[in-house]
Amino acid sequence: MNFLAKTIGTLTGTAIPYSFNEPRVLPICENPNSRSIWKVYDGVSDKDSTPVTIFEFDLKNPANYNYITNAKNALKKHKALSLLPGVLTVFETIENDRTLYLITERASSLAEITSEISPASAVLAIYQITTGLKFVNVEGSCLHGNLRDHNVFITDSGEWKIGGFEFAFNYKDNAIEFPALYASYPALTFQKGMIISPEFESFGSDCFRTHLKGGKSLKFDSYLLGLLSYQISHNRSPASNEVKTQYNNWSFEGIPINKLLSPNVGLRMTTEQFLGNGETSYFGTPEIVAYSKFSHISIVSLTEKLEVFKALASADISAKFLDFKVMPEIKNVFDTTTSNEGNIQTILLYLMYLIHKNSNEESKSFEIFFKPTIFKAFTLSDRAIRTILLKILPHVIENITKYEVQDKIYPNLVTGFLDTDLTIRTETLLSISYVMDKITERQLNNDLLRYLAKLQVDPNPKLRANTVVCLNKISSKMQSSTRIGVLITAFGKALKDTDYVTRLCAVRGFESSIEYFTPEVCCSKVLSSLSPALLDKSSVIREEAEKTFEIYMQKIRAEATSIKHNEEDDHIEVDVSHLSNLMDSISLENLGNSILETVSTLNTPSGTPFPESRMNSKNNLTRLQSASTENVVNKAFGVSDDFDDFDGDDGWDVDDDEIENAKPVVSKQSSFNKPKSVFGATVQKQETNIINKPSTINKKSMVLGKNKPVTKINLNLQPKVEEDDDGWGDGW
């Protein structure tokens, strides 16, 4: 469409430096039901991409012949009145032999608005239109002549402005030809069902020479203002019979609309009178007062600016006005303020947030004004600013790209972990869960984990508990290679914390992190770290720990059932049975009984307490030792009787000469009061000079298929006679 229009325009010499969208409003020449002589487009400037509204009038269309005078008059008056407050701003007018173009700021007419207007917004809208019309009537010395819903516009900045000056004229100019200008008035007004003033209904355009001569003509506009005010406040146009019979009772939020609709010209207020009477009453609301001061915001004091911003940000007014008018001014004040004395910058940040919160999703004010202010505020060291930023961050993080978070927010954000103020540290920690999806892996797995490790030993218990919660939240973003070690260490350490809330958070952290741990890790590390909580002083923590422990056990059992049967399972029970039998055979009780039985079978004369006293030779002693000890040990450790691998040695490694020269000494103690040996046998302690050197038996026993050496125990009953130097002279 744009390409075709520009191509045709170039060929015919009518091209203009703007790109057109589809027509938004069709003119009366194309749509008989239309009330406009213009074809209206939304467009964009080719020079600087500024959004505009383009009004186009086709001079060559025969159906537009009767409206050419009005179209040219509109271009002339628009250019002359454009700089007045409340008038639609004109960027450019273009005329050629074929077409007239009126280029204005981007705006939509009230007739195109389908949503209802809130009462507070309606009051402000009536005030803005009244103010604009007053400037046209008084400062511009012009009568508008056709103040209708299709000639009142709402700009992209949310302001209500006046356009459509097809019937406007300077009421001080007596040379104006009213019949020529107003010849098309009926076709565009009451023939379309619109209400006109009683004097025009009675006298036509001649009323401007008779009843509305000179300054009285302004009451023509005030009557139309009353009709428009009723439409805005009631979200519908009044019927003709309603105006004639009920107008005297019409009032809205204290605004006396009836004063504008009197059929008697003498009793009807002018726009200037209506505005002046309302300054201290119906137009004296905080929103309107703030709006009126905002028009000259650059010359008021800083304190007054704050009051204006507060009133507007909390008012029920157009979000567009706040986005594109108030927000830029707040940003300008923030940037030019050098300190946060009196929390000025803190308040400005919060007001910008309130405006953003109530703005439309399509608003660009966040990108243009609010986001740069957030980045700058993070570089400031003031704690009040940092606190409000951290409170705002969760609500705006979706509108900030991950690259902006990584480069402009995170490096300044984490400095709050080192702040000595507890509130800053806490708010910084809480904000991590909102930025963790947008920071780099290195920032999360290296920098952030180091900060969290320090916070886990913070003096404040609530901060330590929140650290555990934060670790649990960011665990899904951790590298798999470090996650297991970090979580087990951190949660295990938290279970030893003196604060019961921290310990409870650790137990719940284990519960929610089970998916990250393999069954092997659960067995080897997790359960050992979690188990101290089973005996925690708090019953709540113990119950939580039991539940969590059972969850891990279920995971372990599920894994165990999936392990396949192997060959060891076939003979493990048999091996365990053999082991049990062997252990029974070498138990202390069995070994002791075997020794007792052996000793009891010795053939010793009753007059001699020990057989040693009757030994006269080496052979007798050898036979005694062989009979009393070797057989017992062999039986205890499972050594076979036919095992013969001593190479002629007698097993004790004792010299024969020592035995021959030994002189036995008779014990002074009774044989019935002797201490028991480690095998349970009663032995007689003898004093002798014989030195016995027992040797290790080289026999071996088989335990579960493995060779195990068995040591021959020395049961010599004639110990060496020595001095009791070590203090053990207690009968051992």
UniProtKB/TrEMBL annotation:
Record-given protein name: Cex1 protein
Domain of life assignment: Eukaryota
Gene3D superfamilies per the UniProt record, alphabetical: Leucine-rich Repeat Variant (1.25.10.10), Phosphorylase Kinase, domain 1 (3.30.200.20), Transferase(Phosphotransferase) domain 1 (1.10.510.10)
One GO BP annotation of this record: tRNA export from nucleus
A Pfam family this chain is assigned to: Pkinase
InterPro entries: ARM-like (IPR011989), ARM-type_fold (IPR016024), CIK-Related_Protein (IPR051177), Kinase-like_dom_sf (IPR011009), Prot_kinase_dom (IPR000719)
Location of the Protein kinase domain: 26-299
GO molecular function: ATP binding; protein kinase activity
GO cellular component, one term: cytoplasm
PANTHER family listed in its UniProt record: N-TERMINAL KINASE-LIKE PROTEIN (PTHR12984:SF3), SCY1-RELATED S/T PROTEIN KINASE-LIKE (PTHR12984)
